[in-house]
């Protein structure tokens, strides 16, 4: 029988210097949520990969500075790769969720979890959700096919990622980098 109440936890942590450090922070937050008997943990937009608050990437109409290009390259490299494709902007949908994208031969990264697509972020967040028993909803900056997407993933402790939504209509200055 389903619980009569759902306990929701929220946090607004800042993105750390690296994805690895941010995932460690997320794990700590999820452990705290589990200790407080939360069922669902909500984290901010662009938490993984970072929100470029205050950045303009050297953009002006018709021009971009060399420094701005370097800033954007660093930002692009910090985005996470979940192993999805571009599709119509929304990715591969169910095929990605069910891991049916013609995965490569599974390999390991740093002797950790097997990874067949992406950079291992998907597997790490799924592991944290599974270990803590907390359903995680987190925002991230995702790279796929040379593009960046502001996205959110929904991670079930029993099933892993059950959904993802990409912002496919950026607003204002976001148009210069998403």
What can you see in these coordinates?
By secondary structure, this protein is α/β, with parallel strands linked by helices. A 5-stranded mixed sheet has the order 1-2-7-8-9. Strands 3-4 form a two-stranded antiparallel sheet. It has a two-stranded antiparallel sheet with strand order 5-6. The longest helix is centred in the first third of the chain and has 17 residues. The protein starts with 7 loop residues before the first strand and ends in an 11-residue tail after the last strand.
Helices and strands, with pairings:
Blueprint: E1 8-10, H1 19-35, E2 40-42, E3 59-60, E4 63-64, H2 66-78, H3 94-97, E5 107-108, E6 114-115, H4 121-132, E7 135-144, E8 147-156, E9 160-167
Parallel strand pairs: 1-2, 2-7
Antiparallel strand pairs: 3-4, 5-6, 7-8, 8-9
Helix pairs in contact: 1-4
Quick overview of this protein structure:
The chain is of the alpha/beta class.
Instruction: Summarize model confidence as the mean pLDDT.
Output: 83
Strand content: 15-25%
* Percentage of residues assigned to helices: 25-40%
Task: Tell me, briefly, the overall form.
Answer: globular
Mind describing the biggest β-sheet? 5 strands, mixed
